[in-house]
Each structure stands twice: as C-alpha cells, then as structure tokens.
Amino acid sequence: MSTSQQPPEIQPLRLLALDGGGMKGLTSLLTLRQLMLQLKRDVTDPDEPIPRPCDVFDLIGGTSTGGLIAIMLGRLGMTVTSTVFGKKKAFGIGRTMFSGSMYETKDLQTAIKTLVAERLKQERVPFRADTDNTSAANTITAAREDQAVHASSSLSGEAAQDPEDAPLNDVRADLSRFVCATRNKTFNYELIRNYTSGKPDQVDYDCTIWEAGSATAAAPMFFGPVTFQQSKAKFSDGGTTINCPLPEVVNEARRLWNSPQFACIVSLGTGWPANPKVKSGLLGSLGQTFKVLTDAQKKYEGWVRGNRDDLNIKDRYFRFNVEQGTDQLKLDEWEETEEMTALTDSYLGQDKQMNEVERCVKLLRTTDAANESAQS
C-alpha cells in the first residue's frame, strides 16, 4: 500500500485489543465469541452468519498470543469459532508448540505456516469476502526486535505464490494491518506495518504472515528469536514490554484517522498475573520475564487513569478479564482448556459482566457516536 492509500475515514471507530498470556489467550477468545454471538442474536435474519471480528472492528491489535489471534482474526479473516474450535485452531497450534519438554522455535514456525497455508488455500479470494464492507480492519501483533532495519519491498505488490509465504501486506484489499515490535536492546517498541507509514520516525518492515505470527508468539522463556528473511531483524515475544496493547491500539487509530471518534473500545485480558515459583540465577531471570509478560492488568489500569476525563473515550471502553483461577494457570498450560472454558463461562455469567456485554454490544452496533452513548 502506498502512502497515498490510507485507511478509509470511518467514524466512529470500534477498536479491539488482545493481551498476551500464552494459552490463557483462550479466555479472551471465548469472551470475544460471546460478544459476536450477542451481535448475532440481534439480527432478524436467521440465516445471517455469526459476525467475523474483522467485519465488526476497525482496528484489531494484539501482543504475544493476542498478536497471533489478531493475525488470525484480522489478516486471515477467521471467525472466532473457527479460531477456537476449527481443525487448525489457535489452540491446536498451542498444543503443537507446548507438547514437549523442550520447546523448539521451528515447531512454532511450522505450526503457524501450516495454519496460514491451510487458511489461504481455503479462501483463494481476497481475505475480506464482503467487499462492500468498508471497515478498515487492522492487525497489530507485538514482537521484540534485535535490529531496526528497513526491509526490502520484494514481498510487497503481489501475493506470494506459495500460501505459506504470503506477505503480511495484503495488496488485494484496501486495508492496513501492522505489527508492533520492541527493540531488543532498547526495549522501545515500533510498529511493523503492511503499508508505508509516511512518518520519518517510523521504520517500515516487510515480512510474511508466518514471520509476524512467529515473532509475536515466541515467548523468550520457551522459544528462541525469530529472524525476518528480508530485513534480517531478530524478534521475540513483545509481551515482555507491551503485553497490554490497548494504549498503542488507540494511539495508532489516532495516527491513522484524523481526530477520530470512538464508538467502542474493547480490551480483552488473559486473567490476573501468575506468581512464578522460581528462585534465582537463570530461573530468576525467567521469572522476572514471566512477571512482565503477564502483568497487563496494571498497564490497563494506568491507561484508564490517564484517559478517564477524555470525553471521546469515557464510557466507551470495556475491559473483560477473567479474574478468578487464571493466576494458577501457566502460559503453556494447553491441557487446561476445559478449566479455562469453565472459568470464562463463570465470569461472563456474573450479573456485572452480563450487563457489560450488553452495553458493549449496544455500542458495537452504534453508527453515530454523537447520538449514542454508553449509558445503559
């Protein structure tokens, strides 16, 4: 996408931010599924399918596992149901990644490559099948970078012949998608976009879908860094520094759209931070990484304090975060999917959360932010 091809100016905007958290990302997907089902229930046509998040949200951002989910929902246009329960589901990938005593980066990459290839072979059409929908669904994932280098543009312009090597840049649709990356040495994160940013302080990267997915999901305590073929830049899980991507999702929306109005901002957590039982030395270092990786709730609370008086955001943001039980689950606890489902169902069954879901869905249907408020 050239600098002149900016995302269409659509207001009010609907934003979705997905925290990192390893296999606990299932809780955020289940919550999102509830939102999509509620939107479906409000449709009079019984044959209308359950909405895809890429058709509902103008901007989708995630970090770590949330980044991988963002790619699946935004770049690959998958439904939440197919992401959770499909043959090549996100948590089928999780089982592949975390099924051994030692985790291999190549296993992560192979699992994501297979997912991408299978999905694109199914489609064989532009990723947004409903071409009359003008929503600018974007994808952010987070990764950690070793070098900031301008990538060549060899992947841009035409889709790769091999679906496995399809570029993050989807030239078949007038939509922008990007990933968020953090410098390995400085821990200052950047955005990796599928279009030229046009900003002198931004670096433009060129990568495949699987490279972006591998980079954002490669938690350093489990996997080695991922190197982009074109730029030779090295990445690992960006959740170590930006595990709650909500602030960056909102900031990027403001960069993409001039003085945007917000209809609804949804932030999906992966539970309360776990307490790593590690002592000292290398394990202590990994424990500190684990703490930073999982401590996203504080980031969100800080963002709320800084934006509570913004009338464009006030009463339009929602945080869904399963509060009980998830602190006992590990990042690689793929065998506990039934427990995560039960915890999420219990959380969403609370009166407070049921009311929040109803209020959130009402705003997701809003077409005029000036005439519709979040007050129930």
- CATH topology, anyone? Cytosolic phospholipase A2 catalytic domain
Instruction: Please state how the strands of the largest beta sheet are arranged side by side.
Output: 3-2-1-9-10
Q: How large, in whole angstroms, is the Cα Rg? A: 19 Å
Outline the low-pLDDT stretches. 1-6, 96-102, 125-136, 146-160, 276-286, 368-376
What class would the helix/strand composition place it in?
Answer: alpha/beta
Report the CATH superfamily.
Answer: Cytosolic phospholipase A2 catalytic domain
Helix/strand order: EHHEHHHHEEEEHEEHHEHHEHH
Distance between the termini: 41 Å
Q: Let me know the largest β-sheet.
A: 5 strands, parallel
Q: Give the overall average pLDDT.
A: 71
The percent of residues in helical segments reads: 25-40%
- What is the CATH class name? Alpha Beta
Q: In what range is the share of β-strand residues?
A: 5-15%
CATH architecture: 3-Layer(aba) Sandwich
Count of helix runs: 13
Beta strands, count: 10
Pfam families: Patatin
InterPro entries: Acyl_Trfase/lysoPLipase, PNPLA_dom
Motif (GXGXXG): 20-25
Organism: Botryotinia narcissicola
Please name the defining characteristics of this protein.
about 375 residues; alpha/beta; Cytosolic phospholipase A2 catalytic domain; 5-stranded parallel sheet; 5-stranded mixed sheet; 13 helices; 10 strands; about 35% helix; globular; disordered N terminus; disordered C terminus
Task: Describe it.
The chain is α/β, with parallel strands linked by helices. It has one domain: Cytosolic phospholipase A2 catalytic domain, CATH 3.40.1090.10. It has helices at residues 25-41, 53-56, 65-75, 80-85, 90-97, 105-123, 209-217, 239-242, 246-256, 281-294, 297-307, 337-348, 351-364; strands spanning 13-18, 59-62, 139-140, 142-145, 178-183, 189-193, 226-227, 234-237, 262-268, 317-320. Strand 7 (226-227) and strand 8 (234-237) form a beta hairpin. It is globular. This is PNPLA domain-containing protein. The active site is at 64 (nucleophile), 237 (proton acceptor).
